């Protein structure tokens, strides 16, 4: 019985050692004395116009979160599409209900003004 765990143990050891060895090898190969130009935010030769840590409005984050939420919800259509043949009309009804709930969410977000960029 414990012999069956040997491949898992080997995999865990390799999975732990590989990143450590890769980081150490990269540290040995890379140049150790970076110069001032290399430490700047942009290496294109154009000076930065402002600090890169500017503030964004809360609306930007709300739109980003809404995009992620609705995007992840549409991923749930993939398993339905794979099993479409065996689900038949029951599957179609389930997807219609799912898309109706998704559409209600879009309409609610639009009416609340969450999708207005400006």
Key phrases:
single chain; 118 residues; mainly alpha; 2 domains
Task: Summarize the structure in words.
The chain has 118 residues and is mainly alpha-helical. The chain has two domains: 2-39, no CATH class; 58-111. The chain is 68% helix and 0% strand. It is built from five helices and no strands. The protein has helices at 6-29, 36-39, 58-75, 77-82, 84-111. The longest helix has 28 residues, at 84-111. The radius of gyration is 26 Å and the shape is flat. The model has no long low-confidence stretch (mean pLDDT 82).
Short account of what is shown:
The protein is built from five helices and no strands. With 118 residues, the chain is mainly alpha-helical.
Report the biggest beta sheet as strand number plus sense, adding barrel if it closes.
Answer: none
Number of domains: 2
Low-confidence stretches: none
Q: From the alpha-carbon coordinates, what is the Rg to the nearest angstrom?
A: 26 Å
Secondary structure tally: strands: 0
Give the mean pLDDT. Answer: 82
The structure class reads: mainly alpha
Helices, by number, come to 5
Proportion of strand residues: under 5%
Helix content class = 55-70%
- The string of secondary-structure elements, in order, is HHHHH
Topology:
Blueprint: H1 6-29, H2 36-39, H3 58-75, H4 77-82, H5 84-111
